[in-house]
Amino acid sequence: MCGIAGLAGADAVRHEHTVGAMGASQAHRGPDGTMHAASSDGRAVLAMNTLLVVDPQAMPGPYLDRESGVLLAFNGEIYNHRQQATAWGIPLAARETDAHFVLRAWAKIGPSCLDGLDGMFALAVYDPRVGKLYLARDRLGEKPLYWRLDGGRLAFASEVTTLTGYGPAPLVLRPEVMALETPVGVDTPFQGIQLLAPATLLTFDVATGSLHQHTGWSLTGRQPFAGTYTEALARFSVVLAEQVPLRAPSCDFALLLSGGLDSSVLAYLLRPPVCVTVRYPGQDRLDESQIAATIARDIGAELVVVEPDHLDFTRVLPHMVGALDYPMGNASTFSEYMAYRKVADLGLRVVVGGLGPDEFLMGYVCHALVLFGPDAVLNAGMDPYRPLAAKLMHTAGESLDPAEALTRLVLRGPDPEGRIRDLIASVMGRSDGDLARALTLADLATAWRPLVMTSDKLASAFALERRSPYLARELVELSYRLPAEYKICHPAEGKRILRDAAKALGLPREVWGSRDKLGFASPVPAWLNGPLAAWADAQIHTSLTEAPVSWRPLLEGGLKQGGRFDRTRMQALMASVWFHDQTVRAAA
Fold first, then answer.
1. pLDDT tens per residue, range 558-572
2. CA–CA distance, 405 with 427 (Å, rounded to integer)
3. Whole-angstrom Cα distance, residue 184 to residue 200?
4. Domains of the chain, earliest start first
């Protein structure tokens, strides 16, 4: 996991010291060296925080192609770089990395090389031959990249707080933060700073100051899979077995093993030497450690069990919120944070997790509620989700539009202008009439961004590279194209095709037959209403004096206790810690 930062403009070289400071502010992303370099024409300065994974003896970036003058700062991994180097006739020495491949590919064929890259990445390329800076992100946004345009210069960085250090950026309350806990699209809570959208190439002409963005990949418009379920399962199993192992690092690594279906399948396919799980004593409903122990024993891996308590939460919250760049209400972030901390303590550099199947194969309860209706879900033995299902209860005989149903399920707060409803209706309309595909597109437009960015940012806080093998391009595209009934044919059993693949792989019945999804759930909401109630109230009350007036309703909402599916209190607490950090930064 590396980091990148930089500046492009007619006088960029005069601000070389500033770029050096930007790189230094995110040095935790690359413990093997933070360096910066100016382009040959002085119109761009790029910085890079290097984490060496492929070869610990490799040179840190940025990287310069001396013949063309092309300069590259790179974050991520290109899993097919050796194959593509051979296909494109690009020489690579034995100890050269995927970054050297990208540099030479760009110098040889330009931005069109992006389509041939299979991996996770955020990159910056300055090409003095045309006087342009290029910024690009991978197809699903695994690696973050923020940018801002100011005074004819374009600045960029892996972390939004790096860009707030470049110049003033007033806080802005995006309406969707109240509704979804996070900005959507490319917005951030900082005025003038945007997130580069996934699968997007941004081109900045330093001479004219003109800027152009182009999206080079999309799931929509793809032909549905036309074969039988048996044919689909065979094809899915082959792609799964081929693509997932390609994302296994050549060094020792850890797998986040919750005991659920997704991580357990990865365990069998990747055979990690170490598995890490999180358990909360006294919280039997959240405890899948026995299943994790069975999986680890089957594959011959060491199982490391992390057991945080409520006091750990109070101690790590400031660092956790700081690592996230801005607050999010998902209590599972605590479990993920503690797991990454343990992996780093073990001296490992790469951690693997199971993002993806829930979104692409209908793994969430909200998917079943929209597809089958609340009565069918509850009658299928999912009674613990009655508070969620109640959001869809309405007058008998009245039909709910799927977009309206999903909106009711995902809203965490007020949406008075209907922005979230409009967003969900818009993206679901691009699915060519298939409701399962529509739900996937809605997930990608709403909940996906905080999930994937949380994984990157929390891992990076401990100088770890996070890999998500299920996000392989071929696997994602195939999963999206499958008919809905291949993904879910029973209200309590989503991810049907992955369950059957797991069964064929020999996983225990308690894994592929489980109906309840836990993942790395945590008891934080219960703590905030119990042993940490007074502490949480004090934190929120303190921040009310520091926060802008527009943000105070969010904080005040956190002073009320909520139920199992109410994350308002968690969001308000994280926001209070974040505001305090912003105040300290401003004072410094």
1. 898 776 656 888 889
2. 14
3. 16
4. 3-215 (3.60.20.10), 222-522 (3.40.50.620), 524-587 (no CATH)
